[in-house]
Amino acid sequence: MFWKPSKQKNFAFCTSEMVTKAKKTMIKKSKKGSSKLSVPWDKKKAADFLPLEGGPGRELPEQEPQKSTGTVLYIGRIPHGFYENEMEGFFKQFGVVKRLRISRNKKTGKSKHFGFIEFESPEVAKIVAECMHNYLLFEHILQVHVIPPEHVHPKLWKGVNRLYKPLDRVQIERKRQNKERTLEQQIKLVEGIRKRDQKRRKRIEAAGIDYECPEIMWVAADLFPRKLSSMKNRLGLAVEEVTTHK
To answer: Measured in whole angstroms, how far is the alpha carbon of residue 129 from the centre of its chain?
Structure first.
């Protein structure tokens, strides 16, 4: 297929004319869009907010920085040995310490490595948070933050002036085991022991071991002389009486 030179020139002329028209329309559209947004070129007088739909820009009202009114600080990652007396002596260099509390385990009484401290003035609390946050102390990086007053729990300082003593779990368990039981509780206890003993004997027989298990003797008749006969008839249990030898 052969093309004539005149047609080639006309074809080239048409394409260039279309390109120039497209450029002109794009420039006109860009000028119209820029005229809709009246943004000053001066940086000092530049608008803070420009609406997406177009229109004049407007400045946002200036907001004053809020003053910190919190006096309670959260202190995290407290190292071992840095307890109430040591913390009070250390933080007194900033200002007057009103209250101080370290969270401890109820069972063992050991520190949970975080606590709370309260100062008299919020300015001192803010300075302490800025100075002691990420402070390296005994290979621990402290985490100190100011707690807003509305986030302080009302029971945060409950029992803060009382010396914490962990519960003696051994003494509590000893009292529970050695408490006085009624006849019904005693019979229920021995019945559980007998059921476990029967299961143990079955396992021994299934293993092919020839072993005679001792009989379980319980409840002396001298302890409950009046109630024993009535309990036998009501519960229908074979109660073995043990005669005490004086």
So the answer is: 21
Any idea how long the chain is? 246
| Type of residue found at 10 | N
Q: Which of left, alpha, beta for 164 (phi over 0: left; psi -120 to 50: alpha)?
A: beta
Contacts of residue 145, Cβ cutoff 8 Å, sequence gap at least 6: 73, 74, 129, 133
The 10s digit of each residue's pLDDT in 194-236 is 899 999 999 999 999 988 878 776 654 444 444 555 555 544 4
Q: pTM for the complete prediction?
A: 0.49
Q: In sequence order, what are the residues at sequence separation of 6 or more whose Cβ sits closer than 8 angstroms to the Cβ of residue 117?
A: 72, 73, 75, 87, 91, 97, 99, 100, 101
Please state, in angstroms and as integers, the Cα–Cα distance from residue 114 to each residue in 70, 93, 140, 144, 171, following that order: 18, 20, 12, 10, 29
Closest CA to 219 of 187, 177, 246, 185: 187
